[in-house]
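[audit] Reproducing an earlier prediction to check determinism. Same input, same settings, fresh worker. If the tokens differ from the archived copy the diff job will pick it up downstream; this log only records the rerun itself.
[audit] input (441 residues):
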Amino acid sequence: MLISSHWNRMIVKDSQIQFKSPAEIKAFQEARLAEALAYLQAHSKFYQRMFADNHIDISKIRTIEDLRQIPVTTKTDLQMHNDEFLCVDKADVIDYVTTSGTMGNPVTFALTNNDLDRLAYNEYLSFTTAGLTRNDIMQEMVTIDRRFMAGLAYFLGCREVGMGVSRVGNGIPELQWDTINRIHPTCCMCVPSFLIKLADFAEKNGIDHHKSSLKKCICIGEALYKPDGTYTTLGQRINEKWPELKLHTTYASTEMQSSFTDCDQYNGGHVQPELIIVEFLDENNQPVADDEPGEVTITSLGVEGMPLLRFKTGDVCYHYNEPCKCGRNTMRLSSVIGRKGQMIKYKGTTLYPPALFDILDGIHDVKNYVVEVFTNELGTDDIKVRIGSTRSDEAYAKEIKDIFRSKVRVAPSISFESPEYINKLLYPEMSRKPVKFYDLR
């Protein structure tokens, strides 16, 4: 175990805790929780006020179950009181990042030197969970600028592992392949749908992607596996087009400053217990049963600049508590089923956007798409799917609607557009990742 101190703030690195018994993991986390609560009481204006207003004595919060005595923190809290979450002097802030703003105005997060060290360690755990070592070379196919925490985190994680790294950034298949052929990376980091574009470019330009140096990809932002462990349509398409490439998923957010990554068993993203405590809550902020989806709610451990307590992320997942065959005894998360604020009530059916994406990814001649949700004249949710395709006849529209009815019992309205127009909707100038869902309600 490695412990370092800065201004009495402790950073604990214990990569073996995940292999210990569930009871040992819980005891370890509860000791770290006491430190986190004391730090918030001493340094966070927001939580000082919360504790006082709710008559909370942090000395009585001894177990993870005791956390239920504390109110949750929401995205609205972060948006309305952003500066009150800062726990250090601004002179100690090294890096400023923002959330993506998917669910409202972006929120600024400030990271100290210790936080950047913690971020590097988090990605070290993430990459080693996926089986990467210092003998690998990583090609980053995501942005490292534009106030994006993740791209920097991946670079820092590569350094922590000791891997070589090539920071190509997102898009530009020609530059990606030039780099692959020059540097021979063994793994890459990207949004998984980009892998299809990368393979298509290779096929059109005489590149045999089956013989490339890439053997593994860590994927962000889009689901590759369903909660039952089978491929989503997107995952299946990538596997069919590039079967040699092993696909791992990693789930994270700026607010969490932590990630959950698949091991080689591909049965959910592992929690890193020295960095985060995770609860799964229902709409009444009560724990869900083990077989029910719940909103991912996190308490950060070891964050110095802007730590969070019982923060509701808005992401809905299943969780798994049984030990993994890889030897880890940590809780695991499924891929994200949907975002709480993006739930759609359509003709009596509850839907999340990823379910619609999964259907569209499997329909032939659909080049690209965006999904729009709006309030109709009756005051209820309505859905329009804008599809980029070379086809636009009524028979094709009916075929698409029939596929939706067979999968989710309801069919949205369909609008055919040029793939070029849809691509502009997918990649707005200010966005750091593809925007497939537009909530116009």
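[audit] rerun output stored. Observation attached for the diff report: The domain at 343-439 is CATH 3.30.300.30 (GMP Synthetase; Chain A, domain 3).
[audit] end
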